[in-house]
Amino acid sequence: MAADRTRTAIITAAERLYAERGFADVTMRDIVAAADVNLAAVNYHFGSKDELIAELFVTRSIATNRERLRELKAAEEAGNGRATAQEIFAALVGPTLRGCLGEAKQRSDAARFMIRASIESVPPIRKIKNREVDHLKRFAAALRRTLPDHDPADIFWALHFALAMAHQTIRDTERLTRMSDGLCDLDNVQAIIDRVVSVALMALTGKPARAKARA
Amino acid sequence: MAADRTRTAIITAAERLYAERGFADVTMRDIVAAADVNLAAVNYHFGSKDELIAELFVTRSIATNRERLRELKAAEEAGNGRATAQEIFAALVGPTLRGCLGEAKQRSDAARFMIRASIESVPPIRKIKNREVDHLKRFAAALRRTLPDHDPADIFWALHFALAMAHQTIRDTERLTRMSDGLCDLDNVQAIIDRVVSVALMALTGKPARAKARA
DNA sequence: GTCTATACCTCGATAGAC
DNA sequence: GTCTATCGAGGTATAGAC
Question: How big is the A-B interface in CB pairs under 8 Å?
């Protein structure tokens, strides 16, 4: 239990510092100072700096992925086993976008940490993302159930593009704001989700999205 | 001239090593050993490791941006001052995708370096990318000339999405391949450009792209 | 099993000789 | 311009206290 306290203190301090200052600027000595523990405690509990970062990222990723699957299941149950393509894309990009965009003031350390992870793409996190494939295959499978006549390759491309748009929007919020001189509204998260989903749908079907597929 | 030789040797060796092994695994001592120069030479000629990386990236970026603008101008001249939206998007994403995708064996160090830069997004390179805004505004301006009745915000969103799709395709080639079990063809670069452009167009106009706007 | 003090090694940077 | 020597910072490893 004393062990738990130290471990938790490290996790909390590390997530906060990385969220605030990014991965490049935070050293292990910074973290242990903030957590008020000994330098060697990080290696004892996590093995290495990279494994600490990996654990932080995995914890938050699991939460996001769970929320994605929850939305997917809910849509499938509401549709008697078939979600609409629109709902599937929304389940994929909605949780991430809702977590990372919106009013900056009230953002949690967890949300800001995930934004950093997206922007800075440090080696331990890259390795984990490469294993995200199985999770994505579930959304591909859902789309194939809904659109059995579609070319499977087009389905994968559409998923790939949906993720691309969502992640780049999180990553390059600032560039989009500056390029558009503030014209692109990045506070209305639902509007952004709708936009990404609608483009992903068009990528898939070659047609503009109908406003509402099901009430 | 002796100075030039040293400087060039460092640049060549650094680009090759970064291309081969990524930024995280290559130290300055690796670079100077490969270039057969003294350790202090890097700091003398470039100031710091980060400035060396920045110079490598800027050099290659300028080449890409020049090619983008060349394509844009060519299309505008062919269209008497107005390029089609299709041509504008193609000018934006074509040079990058042609440089970074396609047959892996014949990829130059320069191309592989740019792929690494895209994937690993190391601090000095992030800083430079943030100044890319002026370049993008030229493409926004071209689109506004071609589509004067469109909502400007939609134009910026479409440009943002086009870049997102292109960069993610370069960055996550492997994930897309694995997710689709090899079904998505990443060797046919022109087909990928067409796909990205067509989705960007739909994002902009809300309609599927016509096959050829102008012969 | 948990934690601490401390030493080690690699890396980027720099001062000063040539 | 180039080189040697060395410094400080950062991540890691270990020996031993509790």
Answer: 123
From CA A78, how far away is CA A70, in angstroms rounded?
12
All domains in chain B, ordered by first residue: 1-47 (1.10.10.60), 57-205 (1.10.357.10)
Region label for A166, one of left (φ > 0), alpha (ψ between -120 and 50) or beta (otherwise): alpha
Please tell me whether any atom of strand D lies within 7 Å of the Cβ of A45.
no
Mean per-residue pLDDT, A7-28? 98
Q: Can you give the pLDDT at residue A38?
A: 98
> For B37-92, what is each residue's pLDDT tens digit?
999 999 999 999 999 999 999 999 999 999 999 999 999 999 999 999 999 999 99
Which residues of chain A neighbour B92 with C-beta distances below 8 Å?
A: none
pLDDT tens for B144-199 read 999 999 999 999 999 999 999 999 999 999 999 999 999 999 999 999 999 999 99
CA–CA separation, B104 and B106 (whole Å): 6
The structure tokens 């001189």 sit at: A181
φ, ψ at A172 (rounded to 5°): -110, 35
Cβ of residue A27 lies below 7 Å from strand D: yes
Q: Would an 8 Å CB–CB cutoff place B128 in contact with chain A? A: no
Rounded mean pLDDT of A58-62? 98
Q: Are B149 and A118 in contact (CB under 8 A)?
A: no
- Residue B105 is classified by DSSP as T
Q: Which residue has tokens 């509204």?
A: A185
Give the Å distances, CA to CA, from A153 to A144, A156, B104, B179, B195: 11, 5, 21, 10, 12
What span, in angstroms and rounded, lies between the C-alpha atoms of A150 and A143? 9
Task: Please check the confidence at residue B113 and state whether its pLDDT lies above 50.
Answer: yes
**Distance from A56 to chain B by nearest Cα, in Å?**
19
A36 close to B (CB below 8 A)? no
pLDDT in tens, A115-141: 999 999 999 999 999 899 999 999 999
The torsion angle over the Cα atoms of residues A143, A144, A146 and A148, rounded to 10 degrees, is 150
Q: Is the CB of B48 under 7 A from strand C?
A: yes
Report the residue of chain A nearest B160, measured CA to CA.
A176
